[in-house]
TrEMBL record:
Protein name, per record: branched-chain-amino-acid transaminase
Enzyme kind, highest EC tier: transferase
Key words of the record: Aminotransferase, Transferase
Domain of life from the UniProt record: Bacteria
Length: 293
């Protein structure tokens, strides 16, 4: 890395992050018409490696297709690798974003996105800290999750307003994180993470049609042989261990769910440690999940 300026990828080339700007008429700013991903790279013996990059980009492609945004996975891969290399980042959080800009001839505030410009960026943030090991205090949210029938569980920018409302509300009552539960009492997910429980040694991944199909969730199912099924709020209160997982959170043990306190979490700790080895390329059988930069 040659200078101290952070570089990002914008519409086909690397640029200095601090000089880049978007017009105030940007459609995505007004209506949330964009799609993003949250991906991580880790320092491995082979250098920086991105964890499950194709799967993240495939989920982004689905969101882009739904919105009518062009998406080129090969280009997004190239942009990701180039941005990491240009910044010399190894342990990093990677944020690709694709969005609608303005009308080709000036501002366009209509809801028809077809005449709008389209943009694609990738920015990377050096990140060493991970939340594994920290214990999270969770509370059931009074808010409902966006139902999949109204807004599919993909990483659409506007959909995150729902998560932000729940996060704000949980924090206002002194908790770290909110748990979405549906009208029938089934657990959906957290604001930015999926939910697992452990009972009598059996690991269960919470399944719900309104929850984001998490890549960390999929990874932890593969590593633990967990069953995936619907889980009620009451079952969660009755579990021995509860943990949440996501790209940023990795596998984070829950210390309390409202007034229920969880004790030691040996299964979560073991699984989190295995996950940490897998993402760093220390588990030989799992190197296919890594894209070396
Ligand atoms: N649910 C939501 C709402 C999220 O934003 C995230 C983070 N992307 C997750 C679950 C976990 O998904 P992943 O493991 O793919 O990061």
């Amino acid at each position: 890395r040659r200078s101290d300026t952070l570089l990002l990828w914008f519409d086909g080339e690397l640029a200095a992050a601090d000089v880049m700007q978007a017009p105030l008429s940007t459609h995505a700013l007004h209506y949330g018409t964009g799609v993003f991903e949250g991906i991580r790279s880790y320092a491995t013996r082979e250098g920086a490696a991105v964890f499950r990059l194709p799967e993240h980009l495939e989920r982004m492609r689905k969101g882009a297709e739904l919105l009518g945004l062009r998406f080129d996975a090969a280009l997004a891969t190239e942009a990701t690798v180039q941005t990491l290399r240009a910044n010399g980042h190894r342990d990093a959080y990677i944020r690709p974003l694709s969005w609608f800009g303005t009308g080709a001839t000036g501002p366009s505030f209509g809801l028809d996105v077809s005449p709008l410009t389209q943009h694609f960026m990738v920015t990377t943030v050096a990140q060493r800290v991970h939340l594994s090991g920290e214990r999270t205090r969770l509370t059931v949210s009074p808010w409902r999750r966006n139902p999949a029938t109204a807004l599919p569980p993909l990483k659409l920018c506007g959909g995150y307003v729902n998560s932000i409302l729940a996060k704000r509300e949980a924090r206002s009552r002194g908790f770290d994180e909110a748990l979405f539960v549906d009208e029938e009492g089934f657990v959906v997910e957290c604001t930015g993470a999926n939910v697992f429980m452990v009972r009598n040694g059996q690991v269960t991944a919470v399944e719900h049609r309104d929850a984001l199909p998490g890549i960390t969730r999929d990874t932890l199912i593969a590593l633990s042989g967990a069953q995936s099924r619907q889980v009620t709020h009451h079952e969660l209160l009755d579990a021995d261990e509860v943990f949440v997982c996501g790209t940023a959170a990795e596998a984070a043990p829950i210390s309390t769910l409202d007034r229920r306190e969880f004790g030691d979490n040996p299964v979560t700790r073991e699984l989190a440690a295995l996950y940490a080895r897998v993402v760093r390329g220390e588990e030989p059988g799992r190197s296919a999940w890594l894209t070396v930069v």
